[in-house]
Amino acid sequence: MILSLPLRWCADGERLPGRLLLVAAAALALFLVLPLLALLIGSVRDDEGAFSLLRFAEFAATPGMATAAWNTLWVAALVTALTVPLAFLYAYAIQRACLPLRGLWRLIGLSALLGPSLVGAIAFIQWFGTQGVLKAWLGGASVYGPVGIVMATVYAAFPHALMILVVALATADGRLYEAADALGASRWRRFRTVTLPAAKYGLISAALVVFAYSVSEFGIPKVIGGNFPVLAVEVYVQVVGQHNFGRGAIVALLLLLPVLFAFAIDTWVQRRQQASLTARAVPYQPRPDRRRDLPLLLYCLLLATAMLGVLGMAMYTSLVRFWPYNLELTLDHYIYGLAEAGVLAAWQNSLKIAALTALIGTPLVFFTAWLLERTPARPAALATAVRAMAALPMGVPGLVLGIGYILFFNSPDNPLNGLYHTLTIMVVATVVHFYTPCHLTAVTALKSLDREFEAVSASLKVSRFVTLWRVTLPVCLPAVLEIARYLFINAMTTVSALVFLYSSETLPAAVAILNLDEAGELGPAAAMATLIVLTSALISLVYSLLTHLLLRRHQAWRNFQR
Amino acid sequence: MQLKHLIRSLAVAGLALAAIVPAHAEKTVLNVYTALETDQLKAYQQSFNKSYPDIEIKWTRDSTGIITAKLLAEKAKPVADVIMGVAASSMVVFDREKMLQPYAPANLKALNPRFRSAGATPTWVGMDVWGAAICYNVAEMQKQGLPRIESWKDLLKPEFKGKIVMPNPNSSGTGFLDVTAWLQMFGEKGGWDYMDKLHENIAVYTHSGSKPCVMAGAGEFPVGIAFEYRANVVRSKGAPIDIIFPKEGLGWDMEAIAIVNGTAKLEAARKLADWATTREANELYAKNFAVVAMPGIATRLKYVPNDYEQRLVKNDFQWMAKNRDAILAEWQKRYSTKSEAKK
User: Fold this and answer.
1) DSSP state letter for B241
2) Which of B173, B169, B199 is nearest to B326 (CA)?
3) How far apart (Å, rounded) are the C-alpha atoms in residues B67 and B135?
4) Contact B233 A326 (CB under 8 A)
5) Residue B124 has pLDDT above 80, yes or no
6) Portion 250-289 of B in contact with A at CB < 8 A
C-alpha cells in the first residue's frame, strides 16, 4: 500500500517527511495540548474569569502541600529504583537467556496490565491488610500508607518498564560478544561494557516512564494510601471532591514539572545514543548456559508467582460468597455482574474501544517516531516540539486529561464539539493517555538501527518510504506488535480519562467495575475484573501465536547462521 | 459506470432510511445524569414509562463526585436534560452557577416543604433523605473484645484507637455531612473538640463515602462511619455488621431532581419531574430510603429504627454552603497535616 505511492514522491522526498511531521504535531496539539490548556488556564483565573495569580497564593498557603509534594517525589524515586532493576533482569532473562516457555514469562510479566489498576491495590489490601494472611511480612507496618503505595505501584508500573526493556534488549550485535569472549572478558565486564551501554536508552526511558507513572497515578494511593498525602490524590480531591477545577489545575501543573525534567534528560541522552545494530551487525544468539539460565529461571519463577498471586487473589475473591467471612465457593458474582449490573454491554464497549485504540494508535505512534528518528525532518524546532508533546502524556493524570477534554471539546465555540460523547473521542483520549510508553518503545527500537540503512537506500535511489516498508518496519516488527498489544490491554482497563467521557451507550467495563467496588460489591467487581483479565489474556495468547507466525517470516534474519 | 450506479442507489437508500427513521423515532430521548444505584434506575424507568411510554430515558450514572464534576465541566454546553438522584448539596452548587431551570412539578404541594429549594418556583425538588449511620463489624467486635456503640461519643473510647474509618470531607459529600452535623449538634467549639479526639482513633480517612462501610464489612477496620443506604446494602450482601444510628443526631443530605437550564427537551424533562413527585414514585423511593419527600408513606426498612426521622439533625443548607470553604480549610489544617507530623 505504502509501497506503491512513495515512488511518485521520490522527487519530493526531502520535504514530505517535514510536512507529515507537521500533521502529527497538529494532531498532538489538538488532542493533547489544547485540552490541557483549556483546564490549566483555570489556574490563572479568579472566580470571575479575570487574570489572577490568587490561586497560586492560596495553594501555597494550603497546609500539607509541601509534605504532599515531598512524599510524591520520594515515593516515585523509590518506586523507580525498585521497578527498573526488577524489570531489567526479567527482560534480560526473556531476551538473553535460553529459558523454556519464554512467551509465558513474557505474558505473566505483562499480567499487571490485564486487570484494572484497582485490582492490584485491592489485592494488596487483601494479602497484607488487617485480614491478610501475609500481614506479618510487613512487620507491624500498616499496608495503608507508603508501604502499600510503593508495593502496588511497583506491581502496576512493572509491565510499562518491561515493555520498553524487552525491546531494548531485543537486538544486539553478536560480534561484540564474540569479541568480548575472545578477549577473555569476565561475564560481569561483558555485561557492563557491552550489554548495559546498548540498553542505556531503553533503561533511561523505562526509568522516566516509571517515575512519571508513579507521580501521576492517583487510583492506587486513593485506595491504599491511607492518610499519606500525595499530589495526584490532591488533584482528585480538588476536582472530584471540591469541584474546584482551578486549584486542580495548579496541582496538575505541579505534576508536569517532573515530566519537563524527564524530557530534558531524554533530550540530553538522545544526543549520546548510538545505534547498536549497525548494518554489518550479526544478531546475537544466546547459547544455553546453565550457570546463567538456572538462576534467571528461578528469578522469573519467583516474580511470576508474586504477580500471579495478585491476580489470583482477585479470582479467588470472585469465587467466594463474601470475603473474608464466608468462603463458600459460588458463581453468583459472575451471574450478578453480567446479568444484574449490566457489565456485559460494558465489556463489549471496552473490546471495541481497545481494538480501535490499538488499530489507530499503533501506526500513528510508530510512524511519528519514525519521522522523528529516521528522516531529516526539519525545522528542528518542530521535531523538538513533537518530542516534547510525546513525552507530555506520561505526566498528565488521566483525570486531568478527561476534564480538559470536556472543557475543550464540549465548548460551544469548538467546531469539533460533535465529537464529544462519541466512542471516537474515547479512543483518541486513550491513545493520547498511553502515548508516551509507546513512543519510547518505538524510539528505542528505531534507535537501535544503523543510519546506514537510509544512507544505502539513498545511494540506491530508493525512497525513504520504501526503506521504511522493506527494512525498518520488518526489523522493528516486534516493537510494533508490542505497542499494539500494550495499547489494547491498557485500553481494556483504563478508567481515569474515560470516566468523564463516556455516555449512556459507551460505559466501559473498567468504570462499571469501579462502580461495583464503590458500592461494596467486592465479589461481583472481582468477578468482572477476572473476566477482563481472562479476555485480555486470551487475546494476548492468540495474538502471540499470530505474531509468532508473522515474526518467523519477517525475522528470519535474526536466526541467520553464518 | 458501475460505481456511479452504486453511489446512486446508496443515496436513494440513504434518503429512504432518513424518511423512515423519524417515523420510528417519535420517542423523545431524555439524557438523565444520576448518582442513583443501577437497580433503582430500572424500577424508576419502568414506572415512568408506564405513564409516559413515548419518552426514552438514557442514564449516565456515576458517583456523586464524578457526576457533579462532569456537569460542572459541561456547563458551557450541557448534555444532560435532567439531573436526578444527585445530592442537594450539589444542586445548591448548580443553582449558584445558574445551571438549573426553575419548575414547580405537578405534585409539589403534596410534598414536605423541606424537600425543595427556596424561592417561589423551586429549581430542585428533593426525593428522599440519606443520613449518617455507623457500620460496626460484630464479628470483629467479639474477636477483639470491643465495647458497644450507641452514640457518637462512644467512638472516642481509647479501645477504638486505629479502628475507625470515615470519609475525608474534602473528597466526599458524606464526610462533609458528618462534619457539619457534629458542628451543628455540638456547637462550633464542641464539634471541633469532638473531631480532635475522634482523629486520635481514626485509622484512615477514605476518599469515598461508601468505602468506610465496605471496609467495615470486610473486617479491615471494625467501625465505619457511613450512611444508611450503603449500610443496608453491605449488610444484605452478607457482611457481619450492625447498623447503628447514634442517638445524639444524624447528619443527612437529600437526593433531588432538577431540570437543566437550556434543555431542548423541556416538555419531556417536566414530565419526568412531575413523575418524580407522584405517590407512585415516592413509594419506590421508600423501598430504599426511610424518609421520602411525600409525607405519610409508610416505610419499614429492616434495619432502620422507627424514630429515624426524629434523629436527623436540623440541617441548615444555606449555612453549610456558605461556610463550606472555611470548614474544609479548618479540617485540612487540623487533620491532614497532623496525621503526617506524628510519624
Assistant:
1) E
2) B169
3) 26
4) no
5) yes
6) none
Q: Tell me which residue of A105, A83, A82 sits closest to A94, measured CA to CA.
A: A105
Range list of β-strands (E), chain B? 28-34, 55-61, 82-87, 100-101, 124-137, 164-167, 202-206, 223-227, 241-244, 252-260, 291-292
**What's the whole-model pTM score?**
0.86
Interface of B with A in 212-251 (CB under 8 A): 213-214, 217-221, 230, 233-234, 237-240
Task: Quick: pLDDT tens for B241-283.
Answer: 999 999 999 999 999 999 999 999 999 999 999 999 999 999 9
H or E element: which one contains A322? strand A320-322
Q: What is the CA radius of gyration of chain A?
A: 24
Q: A270 CB contacts (<8 Å, ≥6 apart)?
A: A201
pLDDT tens sequence across A484-504: 999 999 999 888 788 888 888
φ/ψ (deg, to 5) at A86: -60, -45
Q: At residue A442, what is the residue type?
A: A
3-state percent helix, strand, coil for chain B, nearest multiple of 5:
50, 20, 30
C-alpha cell at B177: 455531612
CB count within 10 Å of CB A121 equals 27
Instruction: Using the structure block, give the residue that is written with the C-alpha cell 485540552.
Output: A35
Burial class (CB in 10 A: 0-12, 13-18, 19+), B199: middle
Nearest to B217 among A502, A511, A520 (CB): A520
**Residues of A277-286 as b/e, b for ≥16 C-beta within 10 angstroms?**
bbeebbbbee
For residue B132, what are the β-bridge partners? B227
| Per-position b or e across A362-397, b if 16+ CB within 10 A of its CB | bebbbbbbbbbbbbebeeeebbebbbbbbbbbbbbb
The grid cell for A359 is: 488499530
| Contacting A residues, span 52-111, partner chain B, CB-CB under 8 Å | 62-64, 67
Are A426 and A508 in contact by the 8 Å Cβ rule? The answer is: yes
**Largest Cα–Cα distance of chain A, in whole Å?**
74
Express each pLDDT in B128-183 by its tens digit: 998 999 999 999 999 999 999 999 999 999 999 999 999 999 988 899 999 999 99
Confidence of residue B13 (pLDDT cuts 50, 70, 90): low
- Tracing cell 487483601 back to the chain, one arrives at A126
Our CA angle for A505, A508, A513, nearest 5°, is: 125
Residue A435 has pLDDT above 50, yes or no: yes
What would the grid cell of residue B249 be?
443526631
Q: Are the beta carbons of A501 and A458 closer than 8 angstroms?
A: no
Amino acid at B170: N
Which helix (DSSP H) or strand (DSSP E) does residue A320 occupy? strand A320-322
Q: Which residues pair with B250 in a beta bridge?
A: B312
Non-local (6+) Cβ contacts of A369 within 8 A are A390, A439, A442, A443, A446
Residue environment code for A10-34, b if the CB has 16+ CB neighbours within 10 A, otherwise e: eeebeebbbebbbebbebbeebbbb
Task: Give pLDDT tens digits for A42-79.
Answer: 888 877 778 888 888 888 777 778 889 899 999 999 99
- Average pLDDT over all residues of chain B: 88
Dig out the grid coordinates for B25 from the structure: 423515532
Which positions in chain A touch B340 (Cβ < 8 Å)? 64, 67, 227-229
Q: Which amino acid, one-letter code, is at B135? A: C
Classify burial at B273, counting beta carbons within 10 Å of its beta carbon; exposed 0-12, middle 13-18, buried 19 or more.
Answer: buried
Which DSSP helix (H) or strand (E) runs through A326?
strand A326-329
Q: Each residue of A9-32: pLDDT tens digit?
A: 444 456 788 888 999 999 999 999
Instruction: Name the minimum distance, in Å, from the CA of A519 to any CA of chain B.
Output: 6
Task: Output DSSP code: residue B154.
Answer: G
ipTM summary value: 0.84
Q: Read off the DSSP letter of residue A112.
A: G
Q: Is B73 on the interface with A (CB under 8 A)?
A: yes
C-alpha–C-alpha distance, residues A454 and A527, integer Å: 51
